[in-house]
Amino acid sequence: MKLNLDKATTDDFKRLKNLRLSALKDSPNAFGAKYSDLKDRPDNYWQQLIKVSNWCLVSADGLDIALLAVDKADKDRKSDCWLSSWWIDENYRGKGVSKVMAEWVYNLCREKGWQKIGLGVWPDNKNAIAVYLKLGFELANGLMPSRSIPGLMYQPMYKSIGGDSK
Question: Does domain 3-160 have CATH number 3.90.660.10?
Answer without folding.
Answer: no
